[in-house]
Design a protein that fits this description.
By secondary structure, this protein is α+β, with helices and mostly antiparallel strands. Helices cover 32% and strands 17% of the residues. It has a two-stranded antiparallel ribbon with strand order 1-2.
Length: 71
């Protein structure tokens, strides 16, 4: 995984297990509230939770698959 991390904000885990993400997250992942899907990953070694824009990840994977098919 890419370890070029940028600190955006600290958030509190709500009683009902929700996390309110800061607006800066949407800006940095080119997301839209109510539309953007986030993939959630957990790094068991470092105990980190990683959120990724699902749309960006799918686009990268499909480009990689197309390159493999074209070879």
């Amino acid at each position: 995984m890419d370890k070029k991390l940028v600190f955006l904000d600290s958030v509190l885990l709500q009683q009902d297990m929700r996390i309110r993400l800061p607006k800066s997250v949407l800006v940095n992942i080119d997301g839209k509230a109510g539309e953007t899907r986030l993939d959630v990953y957990f790094d068991a070694i470092t105990k980190e939770i990683i959120l990724r824009n699902s749309d960006n990840q799918n686009n990268k994977e499909s480009k990689t698959k197309n390159k493999v098919k074209g070879e």
